[in-house]
Structures are given as structure tokens and as C-alpha cells.
Amino acid sequence: MHLGSCVARATGVFCCLAAFCLAGSVIAQEVLPRPEEPFRGKIGLTYKDSVAVKPKLDVPETYGLEAPPNILIVLIDDCGFGQCSTFGGAAPTPTLDRIAKNGIIYNRFHTTALCSPTRAALLTGRNHHSVGSGVIGEAGTGFPGYTGIIPASAGTFAEVLRENGYMNAWFGKNHNVPDWETSIVGPFDRWADGLGFDYFYGFVGGDTDQFHPALVENKRRMTAPETNEDGSPYHLTTDLADHAIRMMRASKAVAPQRPFFVYFAPGATHAPHQVPEEWIEKFEGKFDGGWDKYREDTFARQKKMGIIPANTQLTPRPESLPAWDSLPEDQRKVYARMMAVFAAFTAHTDHEVGRVVDAIDEMGELDNTLVIYIAGDNGSSAEGGMSGLLNEMTFFNGIEEPLEAKLKAIDTLGSAKHYNHFPAGWAWAMDTPFQWTKQIASHFGGTRNGMAISWPKGIKARGEVRDQFHHVIDVYPTILEIVGVETPAQLNGIAQKPVEGVSMVYSFNDADAEDRRTTQYFEMLGNQGIYHDGWMASALRGVPWASENPPANLLDMPWELYHVEEDFSQANDLAKQKPEKLKDLVKLFFAEASRYNVLPLDDRKTARLAVDNRPSLTQGRTKFVYPNLLRLTEGSSPDLKHKSHTITADVVVPEGGADGVLFTQGGDFCGYGFYVKDGKLTYHYNLAGVDRYTIESKDKIPTGNVQLKMEYVTDADKPLAGADVTLYANDQVVGKGRVEKSIPNRVTLDETTDIGFDTGTPINDQYEVPFKFGGQLKTVTIELK
Q1: From which residue to which does any coiled coil extend (predicted)?
Q2: Which of 37, 289, 426, 508 is most buried by a 10 A CB count?
């Protein structure tokens, strides 16, 4: 048990003991929220013979906490160990440098290898499978470790902080809402408020367009402004920083006695890699040497800086990745530009984090603010495939992009015109000195992320490296030990699972402290790993840039063995030299897998995206009648992919006609729309920008009460199937055409189904959003055939 902890034993509903801790007195709490205290005044017949008792302010002092720190957690998305300058990378991150110089950095800190599983583990202090988050929610299945539902028995540390007087605010990415709970009807148990936050501003989902984000404030969907607060062209990361700064300042102005907890989780540096052009210009030409040279240069810097041990070996390039010098010149030109965009995206993100840190400093609060800056929720992303992408949706749908299109777009990469992603070779380079990338939980390229912590009031060290082995689940108990509270046995009436993390506080002021995390399993998409007492066993299931894994026996994987206490980068496989050691570790992996809901092992990727795997608001229904001006996420919309269906709009068209959207799903990067333009009924199908199909009526639609219909008849109910499309006005055929290929897996990651208008990006360049229908739209009816 950690220093200053207290053991509470139930003697009725609740009891508490206090003991000395880093932050003052410790409160051991059996039940949260606390039971109401009995009235200790006097009730007479009138107020004249009664004694009132003023209610207490809900601030930390009320619960015996002495000057607990403010807390800022920064979580960067898809950021590799060798990406940021603080850890030897080529992308300058002065804010991360500042936190490191003002405190300590950890060079053996680990995540889960994928975004929302890491985020669930961070907030709950439990392993990702323990809280139903073995994979992203959109790929969830009906097994306990993979539901996509964080259970009520695994409350977050934010909930505990809130019950102890903290003001909690979350800015950026929330990818922990089950896909089917993202609509206007919720339920909202696992939205930010249900996870312990008083305020949320950001987006709900895996990623979003940085220039046209799917913004949500608390539970309300909204449209992004045209500019940031300083008048500059809009960018989401800047907007998030603006809101975080305003919230912190307002909180301290109104209630200075309340500490804040700010969870700042921008969508950067996840795809799409979009950043203001002036930032890209700073990096033009700096990556022309390619990914092999980047690895070598970064490795040299890491050694010189002392980020990695002097005896570390640089792991070789996977055979399936091409050498930079083997690529044709036109490919190198495109890929170097893609990396310049990504470096700019990284630097811009750190700059915006710096504005948040500066604001805390300007308020005089930095000395007593615990800043935890985690550079990545997994390794860098290889989901851009071997050739990089103009549009990330092509990866999720297995659609090829021609090189000619990328060459044509080279000067506009990083702009609002593209949903771009760099090639897998750069992702591998960002994870220097390790093997592999995001998704690969078996190797540190997927799971080891740089982290810096500063808290001047409580951490004496400055700029020192800590090499204790830790995991993202260790953040929860670290924060609670600093604040001086215990994990409740019950929260909101629900018995709580034990916290599986261990506090890192023991290492803050003792660089030589013995590791307290001696065992940690890893698993993602069939990739398996187990760390124990300085050794690591690793089983690689498949390459991260493939949309699906080839068949294999998950119970008979080719395991590798590394003595990571001496082999920092997992460079020397000792499986043949020490078969018994490997055998013991594999047994331990399956023991841990059984303990933490990892079983059954599942290596499917896109196959798990099938909607039948999860609860659905639409399953079993064939008819949907929607009102005007409605927005729905894909997870709560009818699944129309390669299925025969009709979309019927009952409208009133005034004399002179009316243009506008009747129905859209998705936007400029993938989706389809049914609308009236220049008086003509139109259906547009956007196959991730690679192919587009437009069917238009020959004549203008009639006026008055009109029924407008689109009939989609698929060639087959299978991915990429073509379809015949017919347009009707008052049951009269007004247009016909073909969709030659259809979207197989996912229409959009962030845009919505819109009725009567279009939000986010337009489905094509024929109109500008919101393109609200100019007549009266009564209802839109969707029928599955």
C-alpha cells in the first residue's frame, strides 16, 4: 500500500480516517457520493425559535484536503516515442520540453496500442479489457472484454475528484462513448458528464476534421465558428486551447478555493493531418532524407540526450517496408511532403498546449499544478498504408488511391481539402528505436510512449529521467495518492472493481527506486505480449497497415523473447536460447488474459466493424420517419451500405422553386446525399473521393405538395456492390443512373446523417453548407427493402 494510505473499514454506511500524505491529510472513503449529514441545528415552530445551519461549500477543505493541486493531463493522439524533440524526435515540442525540465520524464511508460482502450484505462485505472475496451467501440463485440462499455463498477478518478471538490473539464476527443449511444437520445451515462466531468467541449468519436470538426459542447452538437478567438482562421486545436484557458480562468475567478482538473485531449496528431499552412512552411524539405535516415538521426539524438541507455540497439526496418532509397522520386516527393505536414501538426499541437500551460502560469497556479503530458495514446499510426492517404476513409474501406491523385494534391496536403495520413514507413520512423507501430501491442513501437510530469510543489527533481516500468493504468492511483484520497469501495451505489494500477509517486523523488509494476500484459487485435520482472514475451499477429489479418492459430503463435531490462529496444530475440523462460511467460500471459477479460482472443479487424456485433437503435427496423433539421451519428442511423432502400421526402415547394438538402450521410470525404440543386432533384454518391456518381433529374421538380423519392437497388448485399438508382417526383420517374461501387465498411468517422440541411463538410462541391432546404420539409422516410 502506498505512503500515507488509510484503511477504511465499514461501520455502518461510512467512516473515514486521516493520515499524513504528500498533499496533506488522506481521506479513506468507503462510499461516494457521501451520505447526507444530519441536520445539526434546531427546528422550532417558527424561524424565531429555530437555529439554521448554513450548508458547506463543496470545496476540498470541506473534506479535509489541504491545498490539493490543480491537475492538467495532456494526451496527444497517435504520437510515437521518437516523434517529439523531448524524446529525440525531429518535431519541436518546446512545451513538452518545458514540462520535462520542470520535472521528470519516464522513458518506460506504456499504453495499450490503440486509442480508446488507452483512454478507458487512463480514466479508470483498470486494464482496458477489464473495462470492456479491448478494442475501439466501433469494433466491439458481445464478450465482456470487448463490449465498448465502461462498466459502472469501474468509476473514473474524475468522479472521485469531483466528489472531493474539484472542477473537472474535458477538452478534445471523447472516444469512450459506445457507438450506439452517440445520438441525441443517449443514454448519456458514458458521455463526459457520466464519467465525472462538469464540462465537455470537443468531439465524440475516433477522429475529426480539424477545420470542420463535429463539435459537441456537453451534450449539444454544434457548428464550429469561422475563426478562432484571435480572429485567425479556425482550427480545432486552437479552439480547444481557447476554451480550456477560458474555463480555467473563469473557474479560479469564481471559486479560487476549488482546484481544477483539465483533461486536454486534442484530436492531433491522429489523422487527418491538417494544420495551418504557415506551420507547414517551417518544415518544407526537412524530411527529404527519408525514414531510414530519420531513424538513424533520432536514435543518435536519443542516446546523446540520455533518453535511452547507451547500449540500446536500433531495431531494423521490417522486411515488408521499403527502403527509402528504393522508392521512385515522385513517391519520395509526396511522402516527404506528408511528413512535413505531420511534423507541423505535431509542433502546432504542442504550441497550443503551451498556451494552456502559459495561462496556468499567468494565474500564479503552475507551482501547485500537477501536469502530466503523455505523448501518445499508442505508437504512431501506420494506418496510412504503404503509400499514404489523401483520405483516411479509403483505409477503413479498403479502397486504393492512385499516386497520380497524391502528386496532384501535393501542394494542398494538410489543408481542408484532404483527410490525409502519411505512409507506414514514417509511422515506423516515429517509433524509433522500437519495432512496429500503433496496433502492435506485442512490441514497444505500439505501446511505449514518452511522458513528462511536473509539479514543482511536490517533485524536487528537474529534468531527470525515470526508467521504472509503468503503464497508463498507473495514472489513476498516482493522482489519488497526490490528492490524498482513496478509491471508493462504492461509487453511485455500485461496488467498485479493484484499481489495477500502481502509483508512480514513489519514483518522483527517487530515481533509483525499485519498480513497483512487475507484471503487465498487452493485447490488441490478436497481438500478444507479457512483461514480467524485466523480461518480455511478444507474439506478432499481423502488420498494422493491413485492413485484415490473414488466417492463423492464435493459440500457437510464434512467440519472441526479450530481456528488456538489458535490451531497451527489444532488439535481441532470445526465444531459442531460453525456451523454458519463454514457456513460463506464455503461460503467465494466458493467466493474465483470463484474469482481465482478454479471452476470447480475437484477431479480426474490419470484420469486427459489422453492426450486427453491437446493440443498435435501428436493428430489426425497416422504416424510419425523421423530422426536419435532425442530426444523427452513423452509429444511430440506418445502415444503408450495399442495401436496397428508398429515401422519400414529403415537401412543400413554393412558387419559384426551392433548393437544398433533403438527406445526407457523411460529407466531402465519403458519403451520399439527396438534394435539390437549381431546381433539379439530385443524388450524389461519394466513394471516399476516389469515385463519385451523380444522378440528376432532367427537369425541375414541381411546386406545391410534392413527394420526392430516391430508390437504390443494390446488385448484391455485399461490400463494394454496385446499384441502380432511380429518382421520382410524385411517383413519376425523373432520373436514372448507376452507382458502380459502394462503400463497404464505414461511411464516416465524425460526420452525421443530416435531414433538411448539411453540417460539417458538403457531400460535393455543388453547394456550401448548411444548404438548408428552402421549402417546407415535413418528413424524410427511409425504408429498407
Answers
A1: none
A2: 426
